[in-house]
Amino acid sequence: MSSKAAILAAIQKNKPSETPLPALLNFPDQPDLVEKYQKGLSGNGGKLIEAGSLEQVQQHISENFAEDQLIASLVDGIKGNVDVQQISDPHDLEHVELAILKGELGVAENGAIWMPEENVVHRVLPFIAQHLIIILKENTLLTNMHQAYDQVNVSAPGYGVFIAGPSKTADIEQSLVIGAHGPRSLTVFLLK
Record's superkingdom (predicted)? Predict the structure, then answer.
């Protein structure tokens, strides 16, 4: 018997018996999800604004961004001046100042937002824009990531990502830098 065969035989002989998988932990729903979500988001450097309508979002954009800045909106009812659907080369998005996107789920424990590919069109858009606004419905807030993964269809084709704040790094001299590798700000408008 070769040494390889002897090693494999010894491994097979000493293989432990199968054990059942542990039961999944069950976490109860938390009260005050909006407050917990705001805490999680602000801990990541994001900002939460509760809004009653998309008109409030449009007013915020008008007050904080100039008309000549490139604004890409993928939310019906919010005006932009960059038609992302007509752009075939994602490199053409490099000068986008603001991207306005729709989030699918919000996670209170960490402020994360689930963004499937159909909500961003180009995978680079939420990361290349200087500022990011995400519209999220209050009734999509979940307590934790366990509940989020129960909702997300990970076997579906395409791309999806959890976004949990503006870009940040503390690699250089352990000094926190916001916007080093992506958006300098993330504002989440929570619609009632």
Answer: Bacteria
